[in-house]
Amino acid sequence: MILRKVRNEPRTTRQDLVNDLNRAGTTVSKKTISNTLCRQGLKSCSARKVPFLKPTHVKARLKFANDHLNDPEEEWEKVMWSDETKIELFGLNSTRHVWRKKNDEYNPKNTIPTVKHGGGNIILWGCFSAKGTGRLHRIVGRMDGAMYREILANNLLPSVRALKMGRGWVFQHDNDPKHTARATKEWLRRKHLKVLEWPSQSPDLNPIENLWRELKVRVAQRQPMKPEGSGGDLYGGVGQNPCCSVCKPCQELQETSHLCNCKQRFLYQILSFFFWCIKYLFHTIKWKLII
After folding, report:
1. Mean pLDDT in each 10-residue stretch from start to end of the chain (291 residues)?
2. Residue 170 buriedness (CB in 10 A; 0-12 / 13-18 / 19+)
3. Fewer CB within 10 A of the terminal residue: the chain, N end or C end?
4. Do you know which InterPro entries this protein is assigned to (predicted)?
5. DSSP assignment, residue 113?
6. Cα angle vertex 199, ends 155, 282, to 5°?
């Protein structure tokens, strides 16, 4: 009963199982349930967050995977990946675990300082390829199509030259309206830039997400200072001059080629996810027919 319940409803809690068994006339503890599931190779894990996909998104991702599944690594090394991200200036950008004793949770060594409303953040645009990291640009205010094209002109093209991408390089960006606007497409055409066709709702396919995560972790490891006034002197000046504090750990990430060379694994994950969707839909239709 325990295994059947968990396999059919993975979000079931141990307390739910205890209650179900009690109603069936069996008294067990949460520990017993944990041991039973553990012996079957099941353990409690955080549910993986994935983009919300409509059928059209699934179809586009599947086509992308099939089109590029057999591409050699040399082809991915020609891609200049780009994206925007937000970095919190105070507090962590990711979960942090600490080892502590009972009732020692408020020891300063075991806490994470926070301020109201997050303490401010910065929005960054960046790019990278297998040859290294490109320029990092801070976005001030609300970015529109004109600002995005200016960012590409002042940061993308110089990055391509600095990294010596050579002829035949390919530019990647997502399907944000600013990226797909007619004026932006015309700008890319005039610059003779080849753009990688990208499926919507696919941030998990962009290897720059791994770079952003590493960057956020390294920034978060810096001891935060007390914010003063608006903007504050956080992380040793990142609030006022982010490229001084944020680019430094970014430049330390020299081994970037492995981030690009894992694309085939991502493509296999798309196919795997697609078959999970098919399996789910099949069972849904099957149950509806039974009902």
Report:
1. 82 87 88 87 75 82 83 87 84 59 70 59 89 90 94 95 92 95 96 94 84 79 47 36 42 49 55 47 37 34
2. middle
3. C
4. RNaseH_sf, Tc1-like_DDE_dom, Transposase_5, Transposase_Tc1-like
5. -
6. 155
